[in-house]
Write a structure and sequence with these properties.
The chain is α+β, with helices and mostly antiparallel strands and 132 residues long. Helices cover 57% and strands 18% of the residues. It has five helices and four strands, in the order αααββαβαβ. It has helices at 3-15, 18-25, 29-43, 59-86, 107-117; strands at residues 48-49, 56-57, 90-99, 120-129. It has a two-stranded antiparallel sheet. A two-stranded parallel ribbon has the order 3-4. A hairpin with a 6-residue loop joins strand 1 and strand 2 (56-57). The longest helix has 28 residues, at 59-86. The termini are far apart.
Length: 132
């Protein structure tokens, strides 16, 4: 059983949509579907009722979702204690920006430099367009 498969399973359980879960995990839908099938093979049971919208968990899937979340949390905690010992800055950095005409900052360059200096961080950004 792979953590990646558990992460994809939890994303699908929470999003109830292959499209949204794949986007959340930043993979193609077919990759998410393959990952879930591999997990189903590992546990020996169907985890989702396919062909319904929204996607629904089977009884086995419903039973697994809590344990999957705990396993992912435990893996993240294990990774964090090692990074704490090593003194590595880690975690998720979320940044929001607003684009406006007339204001240009080297934001992408700053973010790239920061990411290079702190490889233990993952980042995501959202940009909102502003006219004027």
């Amino acid at each position: 059983m792979e953590l990646r498969n558990l992460r994809h399973f939890v994303a699908l359980a929470e999003e109830r949509s292959f499209t949204r879960a794949a986007a959340r995990e930043r993979i193609v839908q077919s990759g998410l579907s393959s990952s879930v099938r591999a997990l189903e093979k590992d546990v020996g049971a169907r985890l989702f009722v396919r062909g319904t919208r929204p996607v629904r968990l089977t009884a086995a899937g419903d039973a697994l979702v809590g344990a999957a979340r705990r396993a992912l949390d435990a893996a993240a905690a294990a990774r964090q204690v090692v990074q704490d010992v090593e003194g590595t800055l880690s975690g998720r950095l979320r940044i929001g920006t607003i684009n406006s005409i007339g204001h240009t900052l080297p934001f992408n360059a700053w973010l790239a430099e920061f990411a290079h200096a702190h490889p233990g961080l993952t980042s995501s950004s959202s940009r909102r367009r502003r006219c004027g």
